[in-house]
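Hi there, hope your week has been kind to you so far. Thanks so much in advance, here it is:
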Amino acid sequence: MNDPIEPTSWLGDSGDDCDVVLSSRVRLARNLAGVPFVGQASDPDRNEVVGIVRRSPVFADHPDGLSWLEMETLSDQERTMLVERHLISHQFADARFPRGVGLSADKRLSVMVNEEDHIRMQSLAPGLALRDAFQRVAEIRDELESTVDFAFSPRWGFLTACPTNVGCGIRFSVMLHLPGLKMTEELGRVRQAAKDLHLAVRGCHGEGSESSGDLFQISNQITLGDSEEELLDKFRDDVVPLLLKYERASRKLILNEKRTMLEDKVHRALATLRSARILGLNEGTRLLSMLRLGNSLKIIEKPGLKTIHRLLLQVQPGHLSSMMGIGLDESEEDARVVRASLVRQALEDVLQ
C-alpha cells in the first residue's frame, strides 16, 4: 500500500477532458478452462487458480512489476482503502475465501484473482484515456494467454460468471462529474438515453453503489457480438463525446442564466469547508464537488483539481482512518470531527 496522503496516479489534475472526466477504466474478465467458476468452486479449486495465475509471466517478469497481495492477510482498513482507490471491488474485499490481487507500482493496474470471475484485469488512467488503459490490459491478457487456457465457446466467446460479460468480456468505463446535468434536472433524460444505448450508469464505486458528489460511472453493458476494438471505438468516439456535450451545455446554461447563484454556491462551499468543525462524508463530497465545478469553470483558481481530488479520496472512511489514526469502527460523530479538521488544514495549506 502506498502513502494515503497522496492520491493514486490515475487521480491527478490532468488528462484529456479532465473538466468532466476524472478517469477511464478498462476491465477484462476471464476464467480458466476446466475449473469451476468462483461461485461454484471449492477452496482447493480457488487455491489452484491463485497458484496458476501467480506462476504466470504476469508476476514472474512483467515490466510493470506487479506485486501480490493476499487478501486474507490484509486488515479491514487496507481492504477498504483498495476499494476507495477503485483497485478492487466491494464484493472482492468482503469475500471470505482464497483470493488475491496483483498491483502495479503506479497503482493504475490491478489483477484480481477469484473475484466474480477467476481473473479480473483492470487498468485506470486519468482523464479520457481509454486507449491507453486498454493497451495495458491487453498486455496482461496476452501474457496470461501464453501460459493459461481460458474458458471459451466457439459460439459465445469467452465464458464468464455473469451472462452480460460473455463474448469478449470487456468493460470500458469513465468516471464523469455531472453537476451541470444534476442542477438542470436533466439526469433523468441522460439515464434514459444511456439505457437506450445499452450503457450502465452507476455510482462512483460501481455496481450497487450510490452516486456521491455528482460522480457517475458510465460503462458499456454488451460485450457479445463485437470485438474489443469495435466496442472501444463506439464507446470512446460516439458515447463519451455525447455525454460530455450534454454536461458542458448544462454548465454553459447555468453560467449564462444563473451565474450569481452558481458563484454563490461555489463560494459558500469553499467557506463551509474552510470553517466547518463537523463534516459528514456525504456533505463533504457534495461540497468538494461544487469546488470542482467552480475550478473547472474558472470561478475559483484555488484549490486546484489535484487538491480537490486528493481530498475526495482522503475523506473516505478507509483513508481517513489511516491518515488520522482512528479505527474504521470509530463513532460517526468522531469521524465527522476528524474529517472536518483534515479538510480545513488541507485548504489552509493551499489558500495561504
The CA atoms of residues 254 and 261 lie 9 Å apart. The mean pLDDT is 90.
